[in-house]
Design brief:
The protein is α/β, with parallel strands linked by helices. About 35% of the residues lie in helices and about 20% in strands.
Length: about 270
């Protein structure tokens, strides 16, 4: 498999890959620069980490910037947002007021328009409480941040992230793909996904399989979901059973997802 390096996609998208590769960030954070063909100003989504070489690269691609948008607050997406916006002279719009620069917020159903570019905001909480996705109707693509990744599956970052909300968000994105409003996914990490519907089918089935595995692990351990959630060591024991095929270096992140799964099962 060729390494993901970003590049131009559709008529309106350019991905500038941040040099912050890692276990959680895959090849690095995807900073997306969106511009209507022939337009003067761009929209920058997730400026990413505060790395001078990355921000220089984004500024070169973006030119004059109308606004910065954030998919969510995690630092690998948001750390440089204020710094970059101040550099190019625009605002930052985000669901969480703590990450905004200027008076304008951002929420489900909002439409951002810059020089003919239309970006529709789709609330997709679950990975975090403030997770948003951005639909580009003209290109039939959705920018998903960490809600859907270009490779592998995402972490539901409990307790801020909630599995019930995440499953609802996957259903919402799946419905957009089913009616052909979305054909492709431009994720926050990893390569572009050309078949949105297939990817979302996989994500939904994967979550159902993991839930079934967690329930089986609880039966083996002889505990309820509520007891396991409350126990200081039981979530890690569930991880060791359910994620035995996953590199142990990722078990810390897996435990966040397991805690979200236990909370979800305990509440049913």
């Amino acid at each position: 498999m060729d390494a993901w390096q970003g590049g131009a996609y559709g008529d309106r998208g350019r991905c500038v890959l941040a040099p912050n590769a890692g276990f959680m960030t895959l090849d690095g954070t995807n900073t997306w620069v969106l511009r209507e063909p022939g337009a003067r100003r761009s929209v920058v989504v997730d400026p990413g980490p505060s790395l001078v070489e990355h921000l220089d690269a984004v500024a070169e691609v973006a030119g004059e910037v109308g606004v910065v948008l954030l998919t969510h607050h995690h630092l690998d997406h948001s750390e440089a947002a204020r710094e970059f916006a101040e550099r190019v002279g625009c605002g930052v719009r985000a669901l969480d007021p703590a990450y905004r620069l200027g008076e304008e917020g951002l929420g489900d159903g909002d439409v951002v328009e810059v020089d003919g570019l239309e970006v529709r905001v789709v609330g997709t909480p679950g990975h975090t409480a403030d997770s948003l996705s951005f639909l580009l109707p003209a290109d039939r693509v959705v920018l998903t941040g960490d809600t859907v990744l270009g490779r592998g599956t995402t972490v539901v970052a409990h307790p801020d992230g909630q599995l019930g909300a995440y499953l609802d968000s996957l259903d919402r994105l799946h419905a957009l793909a089913e009616v052909h409003d979305v054909a492709a996914i431009w994720p926050g990490h990893g390569p572009v996904i050309d078949d949105a519907l297939a990817a979302l089918d996989h994500y939904r089935s994967h979550r159902r399989e993991r839930l079934a595995q967690v329930e089986a692990a609880l039966a083996t351990l002889g505990v309820t979901a509520a007891a396991a959630y409350a126990g200081p060591t039981l979530p890690r024991q569930v991880v060791e059973v359910v994620y035995a095929d996953v590199d142990p270096v990722l078990w810390g992140a897996a435990e966040l997802s397991v805690r979200a799964q236990l909370a979800y099962l305990a509440a049913r």
